[in-house]
Design a protein that fits this description.
Order of helices and strands of chain A: HEEEHEHEEEHHHEHEHHEHEEE
Number of helices of chain A: 10
CATH class of the largest domain in chain A: Alpha Beta
Oligomer: homodimer
Helix content of chain A: 25-40%
Strand order of the largest sheet of chain A: 8-10-7-11-9-12-13
Largest interface: A-B, 77 and 77 residues
Chain lengths: ~350, ~350
């Protein structure tokens, strides 16, 4: 029988996690003091600003334990934080993991979750340096604070988009929503990891390397990750930059697996692309004459598709969709809202 | 009727909190970018290390909503994080607040909780710079990551206690446990804020200023706050420092309100002092010839009682209690353990 938290206790679990991080995690010289004191102690690198982000996921709201393995859950929770640092052009460095867990949770599951964190952090030379453990209510939660570093000249905000700028998007936003829908319909037995959009939902990629590489060109005017869905996140850029956007349906990346999943779900792939979906792709704005350069930098890192899907306009807060038949629709930027259902 | 989260929504609530922090919070020049982008952006001060701590409190486990006002809850949640930074000799600077809330929560309550955060942060020239909002399960949670700064030479760890060092403790650990017990017995109608130990539980003080002042002397060999109860936390020092401790019952700070509360509860004040209790007092070790200096520095900051309650021994992991009748008892350092019940 596998050990559970209620039997090893909080301090037993801390010891186990500590050993695991020592054996399988990255040891950073900047960490003067990690887990095991009142606070972790870090030495910031001169010349860098710190980027600090925090994202929590709650059982039953952001993930379904019956459809995701503890290791993938760990990866996913870390990926969404890494994505936020990457969308500002930064490098993730130090993570604090705060877990709210149930007493009946197997210790092995918690260790696997930490392996998932390290799957994402180790290749980026980043590490878990602290955190907190507590008992949750009926739903477990994973709350991660991630600290990154960025050179002031490299940092990209949401607020720099200018009228006339091109709007680019990586990958296929909407895949994650399609994957979730397939999981929720429970059409496939077990966890259908072989289904590409289900995989996109359960094992999303962040674009932190890509975000940083293009930020370093100095030509990205605004950037954000698509964690609230494409229009929701583009809406955040428009709002912060006091601009609007014109989007071209004909250029949307609706092909490939998204299209196939839409057929399977009897959904319109356009709706999936424009709906709420927690992919971790990048929305990028830059002046028209830098589009090719940005695409070239992205291509140098791997075969990630990039689509130019529209342009920034001066019509503050207005997002217009130009359909294939040239009719114009107003788009309402709705993102995930955790309190409205 | 008061507005609730389900009607204003996540983004509406973020706007409200953002305005509140702008109007009533401290604006820090080191914050290049606060709430409203993917990550907050901070400029660390040259010559300082960063201290990063993270503590979550869960409704029904760490607090009872019916016995604490939202503003006091905010204070309490922030105090326990400030206490961790102070116990290392640092200054709190930047807080990230991650809230798991229920849809029926009044917006006003959330605003009051933020006022509680600011009650604690503003006087220390610290600010909330980011965070996360999500919907919780049956229990709300408040998870705070606090970033502080400390000069490398000032930082005090748990691991520096040496055999022969004096063990000092501030205030009256155990009061908080007594206050909680009175609340749980529900003997007093409403929230009996006038009861000193109930007040100690609901509105604890941190000793961050004191911790920093004595750390700056360079003579504190180890320090920790008493969030797990006095023996539990002293046990952390012993374990990290590879030492033991000898404690003198006759010198324990069992007087004042703790004594009166013990009588009222028909409890032994010694048990309250030695039990689990989340006060945020300091346990300090220093060499015998520095005790007076440390006491003098503490006295210069206000009328905080300090008791010399024992000494560090070389008997690794052994904590011995010398009773008033000179008999010797072994003490088991048990702290709060969230998974054992």
């Amino acid at each position: 029988m596998s050990e559970i938290l209620a039997t090893v206790g909080e301090f037993g679990l801390i010891d186990r996690i500590h050993s695991l991080l020592r054996e399988e995690g990255i040891q950073l010289p900047e960490v003067a003091l990690g887990i095991g004191d009142d606070a972790a102690c870090l030495t910031p690198r001169p010349g860098y600003e710190l980027l600090v982000t925090c994202d929590a996921i709650v059982e039953g709201r952001h993930y379904l334990p019956e459809t995701i393995s503890p290791r993938d859950l760990g990866r996913r929770a870390m990926t969404l934080n890494i994505s936020d640092i990457g969308a500002m052009g930064g490098m993730p460095r130090f993570a604090l993991v705060s877990l709210g867990l149930k007493g009946e949770t197997p210790v092995h599951d918690v260790e696997d979750m930490y392996r998932g964190f390290m799957d994402e952090l180790n290749p980026l030379d980043a590490a878990v340096v602290g955190g907190n453990l507590t008992k949750s209510g009926d739903r477990a939660f994973i709350d991660i604070t991630l600290i990154g570093e960025v050179e002031p000249v490299t940092r990209v905000c949401r607020s720099g988009a200018r009228p006339g700028d091109a709007i680019l998007v990586t990958g296929y936003p909407g895949q994650s929503a399609a994957g979730l829908e397939i999981l929720l319909k429970g059409k496939c037995p077990g966890i259908p990891m072989e289904h590409p959009v289900v995989r996109a939902y359960l094992r999303p990629f962040h674009r932190a390397r890509e975000g940083r590489a293009i930020a370093k060109t100095g030509y990205v005017t605004a950037m954000i990750d698509t964690s609230d869905g494409f229009p929701g996140d583009l809406g955040h850029i428009c709002r912060s930059s006091c601009v609007g956007a014109e989007l071209w349906e004909a250029k949307f990346p609706l092909g490939g697996e998204l299209q196939r999943a839409a057929l399977e779900l009897k959904r319109d792939s356009l709706d999936l692309f424009l709906g709420e979906s927690d992919d971790y792709e990048l929305i990028i704005t830059c002046s028209q004459d830098r589009v090719n350069l940005i695409k070239k930098v992205l291509a140098s890192l791997g075969p990630l598709p990039v689509s130019e899907v529209g342009k920034i306009t001066q019509n503050e807060g207005e997002m217009v969709l130009i359909r294939k038949n040239e009719s114009r629709d107003k788009l309402t930027p709705m993102g995930w809202d955790h309190f409205r259902e």
